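Quick one:
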Amino acid sequence: MRYGHLERKKLTIKTLSPVYIGSGLTIGKKEYIFDKEREIIHFVDMPALYSYLKGINLLKEYEKFLLNKSRNDLLVFLQENRVVENAFKSFVRYSID
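Output:
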């Protein structure tokens, strides 16, 4: 399929040695949501989360959460502040199970 000067093709690649695909970026526990009951990990778009929390006046609470070293579960923070799971779609980049 062509997109202007770009062409899109489907390929199958056979690797002959181990391959690492990644950027080296690490994600801290305060940057993703782990739902243990449903066994799903939601990866958060941090600027979108910031905007969402600003819109519902939770930035001060979020700042306290970030600065508190003993609290590191983003899901618990969101639940304690009554952020419902339906709202996650506004700041979750993608999810895996």
